[in-house]
Design goal:
This protein is of the alpha/beta class. Helices cover 16% and strands 33% of the residues. The protein has two domains: 5-105, Beta Barrel (Elongation Factor Tu (Ef-tu), domain 3); 109-278, Rossmann fold. The protein has six helices and 16 strands. The strands form three sheets. The chain has a seven-stranded antiparallel beta sheet. The longest helix has 14 residues, at 216-229. The protein binds flavin-adenine dinucleotide.
């Protein structure tokens, strides 16, 4: 197993002050928390645990990808879908309230970084799986042109009302392709149907890389699509987890060793970003 929380020197825990907590779509909200010491530690793909200070229900924190950070102001943004008790309570927090946070957690996209960078990069996002890609895109788009992979964000949702932050991605200068299952916006169908537009069969597999985050059925489809074409693929898992620090083992996933035997990895500290070829998808 890789590092456990006790070995991490870059973690911070404390309270942040809420600067904004607004709806960005029918079911999705964006929260800005001022936590300068946290903000300065974040790398693309990291996540944060948020916990309410008042009350003990839910007793556990909830994990969220760090959407954006602004180090000079100490602002940390998360984009979250309201799905249950924890996120409903987060949605009721107001400007000036405090929230407990710890992190940054996880390996982030740094594990997927290769040298030289791929020539073409497809970022595949479903639901709120676009959240860990904003900071990554910021980093990629800041690279000198001769080093920058040709990058496209493929973003899918059930219906148009479930998209969020698309203007933010476009304002970065990102190339964005959208798909909805009901055809209400963008291409009709699954986001994975867009992959051949970005990575056609005649594009050399060794020059391509896919990074994906979203619901398990989408990740499974992306993993299978890339495996069939020999394209390197990394997936960021949103496995339900309790501590986020490697202590509780509630987020284990099955992982293939070099010798083909199976082992377990904790999504919180060994991931959440994993080489798709190493995970069990069936
Ligand atoms: C590393 C990581 C990063 C994440 N990043 C984001 C993010 O940026 N934005 C975001 O909206 N969500 C993200 N999630 C998922 C988020 O943590 C859960 O939606 C949240 O914990 C739900 O809390 P709740 O108390 O509102 O729901 P609960 O009351 O705990 O659950 C409500 C319903 O949602 C289901 N559920 C809960 N957690 C998950 C999960 N992780 N995956 C699938 N179903 C779940 C439950 O089974 C239940 O049906 C992330 C998860 C992980 C592990």
């Amino acid at each position: 197993m890789s590092d456990c929380v006790t070995n991490r020197k870059d973690l911070w825990s404390g309270c942040g002050t809420i600067l904004a907590n607004r709806a960005v779509s029918k079911t999705i909200r964006r929260m800005t928390i001022v936590a300068p010491e946290f903000a300065e530690r974040v790398q693309p793909g990291h996540f944060v645990m948020l916990r309410l200070l008042e009350g003990s229900d839910p007793v556990l924190g909830r994990p969220f990808a760090v959407f954006d950070v602004d180090v000079p102001s100490g602002a940390v943004d998360v984009v979250y879908a309201v799905v249950g008790k924890g996120t409903r309570r987060l949605a009721h927090l107001r400007v000036g309230d405090s929230v407990a946070l710890w992190g940054p957690l996880g390996n982030g996209w740094r594990v997927a970084k290769r040298d030289p960078l791929p020539k073409r990069l497809a970022l595949v996002a479903g639901g709120v799986g676009h959240a860990p890609f904003y900071l990554l895109l910021k980093e990629i788009l800041a690279l000198p042109e001769d080093r920058r992979p040709e990058t496209t964000l493929l973003y899918g949702a059930q219906t148009m009302a479930r998209f969020s932050c698309v203007p933010d991605f476009k304002a970065l200068g990102a190339n964005v392709k959208l798909a909805t299952e009901d055809g209400s916006f963008g291409a009709k169908g699954f986001v994975t149907d867009l992959l051949p537009e970005v990575l056609p069969d005649d594009f050399p597999a060794q020059d391509a890389q896919i990074l994906a985050c979203g619901p398990m059925p989408m990740l499974r489809a992306v993993a299978k699509w890339s495996a069939a074409r020999g394209i390197e693929c990394w997936t960021s898992l949103e496995s339900p987890m309790a501590c986020g620090m490697g202590l509780c083992f509630s987020c284990v996933v099955e992982w293939k060793n070099d010798d083909g035997t199976w082992d377990y990895k904790r999504a919180c500290v060994d991931g959440p970003v994993f080489d798709a070829a190493r995970l069990k998808w069936d």
